[in-house]
Design a protein that fits this description.
- Among the domains are: 143 residues, FAD/NAD(P)-binding domain (3-Layer(bba) Sandwich); 100 residues, no CATH class.
- It contains 14 helices and 19 strands.
- The chain starts with a strand and ends in a 20-residue tail after the last helix.
- The longest helix has 19 residues.
- With 455 residues, it is of the alpha/beta class.
- Bound molecules: flavin-adenine dinucleotide (FAD).
- Flavin-adenine dinucleotide binds next to helix 1, strand 2, helix 13 and helix 14.
Length: 455
């Protein structure tokens, strides 16, 4: 019987395992439903082209993760890239972010954005919805031409019901000076959390997972899909018929699936959670073509509603090895909420998006070598009111049952690969404290202390 059972071998599960081992604790098992680890940070290879589950770029703004990336993952084989991201609107490509690069817009739209910013509802309080947050900090024009339509497409949700709790790290702020500067200079400053990023020189983001896995000694049990958890007996069963007892359970599976599999115990009732944890799904379509693209962009945001995809990315502009020599490859993203949109309509939207992309980029059918769509059933969790009001309590109840639900989908949050590594580390520490585990005296941390050397 393992003391700790980890469900899911994505980055969060692997990081939990790594950090348990780092403290000399090996009495755990890690169970993964797929036939390979990695979760969303996997890559697929089709006829010489490499695709991820849409763009997965490594952003670093945490000292521990910087050190972890350098010393555990290893920088060799990765390259640091200065972001070239753009916005396509009114038939023109402009640099990102939209709010400081308005010069490509028609004059009346520029005026609407500036006037809206000056007259923004600075004193609006409380700010309960994403729409109100935009009106308070950016104003009506920037909302109308970018932040509203773009976020309606990516979330597939009503912005008047979506809470703004996720925006802090992901939407760059602006000032009137920045807006004016962006009108008068050709390229405004690189801003935002992803101004530069790291990416494998070849093989896609899978390299990150492979390197982390290589630092773990326990064998991952693949094709072990969680079926049910009996928290009273501390007993977990899998769809393949296997089962285990445990002391502590760490789940990185989506929270709505987790609560569905926990046998109700005492006065704990999960039915409200099952009904109210909402999340969108994404089709990531990939095209490989027999020539390079004209653009150098890494990715392009597409706010206009006439296109039903919200972003296009160009794999071989990120690193050339993502496509065979002389070829180009792209990804596009279409989002929908399965409980709101039928699979049939979602697939029709996907087909339309691929057709629109070909038209926009003037790609002939005869030029397409590969057309490969990857589906992400849990992509962006919906920050609805229920989540804001109940999530903390739900996690506390689970922890009472010795269940730690962590990671992007376990915690039901908007987070990055860096966060996944940090979540695994924090959980390993919490669990070992609860188990009263003391690292052997000779155990030397595998991660050297942070150095002053930058990445
Ligand atoms: C479209 C998109 C683009 C993104 N781009 C970036 C980016 O550019 N940069 C960045 O830093 N982050 C990005 N992210 C976020 C990043 O993918 C995640 O933060 C990170 O990969 C989450 O890791 P995880 O282990 O928590 O979850 P996952 O990767 O989902 O791993 C969970 C694992 O659990 C397994 N599992 C699920 N259910 C069960 C079950 N019932 N039984 C057993 N196993 C189960 C899954 O198969 C999976 O392997 C992006 C996310 C999306 C959706």
């Amino acid at each position: 019987m393992p003391k700790v059972a980890i469900i899911g071998a994505g980055l969060t599960g692997l990081s939990t395992a790594y950090h348990l081992e780092e403290k000399g604790f090996f009495d755990y098992e890690i169970f993964e439903k797929n036939d390979q680890p990695g979760g969303l940070a996997r890559s697929v290879h089709v006829d010489g082209f490499t695709f991820d589950y849409t763009g997965h770029f490594v952003h670093i703004n945490n000292e521990y993760f910087k050190n972890f990336f350098e010393n555990v993952i290893g920088k060799t084989g990765f390259t640091k890239i200065v972001r070239d991201s753009q916005v396509f609107t009114h038939d023109k490509f402009s640099p990102y972010p939209f709010q400081t690069n308005l010069s490509g817009l028609p004059t009346d739209a520029i005026c609407e954005c500036i006037e809206g910013f000056v007259l923004r509802q600075k004193h609006l309080h409380p700010v309960d919805t994403f729409r109100q947050w935009v009106l308070k900090y950016y104003g009506t024009g920037i909302g109308k031409y970018f932040l509203f339509p773009y976020n309606e497409k990516i979330s597939a949700y009503d912005l008047d019901k979506m809470c703004p709790s996720w925006v802090q790290n992901f939407v760059p702020s602006t000032t009137l000076a920045n807006i004016v500067e962006g009108l008068t200079t050709e390229h405004s400053k690189q801003v935002g959390y992803n101004a530069h990023f790291w990416y494998p020189k070849r093989g896609g983001i899978q390299l990150l997972v492979d390197r982390l896995q290589a630092n773990i000694t326990q064998k991952i049990k693949t094709e072990f899909q969680l079926s049910s958890i009996d928290p009273t007996q501390k007993f977990v069963s899998f769809k393949n018929g296997d089962s285990r007892s445990y002391d502590m359970l760490v789940s990185t599976a989506p929270l709505n699936n987790l609560v569905d599999s926990v046998k109700e115990s005492g006065n704990i009732n999960f039915s409200a959670a099952k009904n109210n944890l909402l999340c969108n799904s994404i089709f990531g379509f990939n095209l490989g073509i027999n020539r390079p693209f004209e653009t150098n962009a890494h990715w392009v945001y597409i706010p206009e509603k006439k296109y039903n995809f919200y972003r296009l990315g160009f794999w071989n502009n990120v690193v050339p090895a993502m496509a065979p020599p002389g070829c180009g490859s792209l990804f596009g993203e279409v989002a929908y909420i399965p409980s709101h949109t039928s699979e049939k309509i979602a697939k029709q939207n996907l087909r339309n998006a691929i057709a629109q992309t070909k038209k926009l980029l003037k790609i002939q059918d005869s030029e397409v070598l590969v057309d490969h769509t990857l589906q992400i059933p849990h992509a962006f969790v919906t920050h609805n009111r229920w989540r804001e009001e109940n999530l903390k309590n739900l996690h506390a109840k689970l922890r009472e049952l010795n269940i730690y639900s962590i990671g992007r989908y376990g915690e039901w949050k908007y987070s990055s690969m860096q966060d996944a590594v940090l979540d695994g580390r924090a959980t390993a520490t919490a669990i070992l404290t609860r188990l009263g585990h003391v690292a052997p005296a000779a155990q030397v941390s595998r991660i050297p202390r942070p150095t002053s050397r930058g990445l």
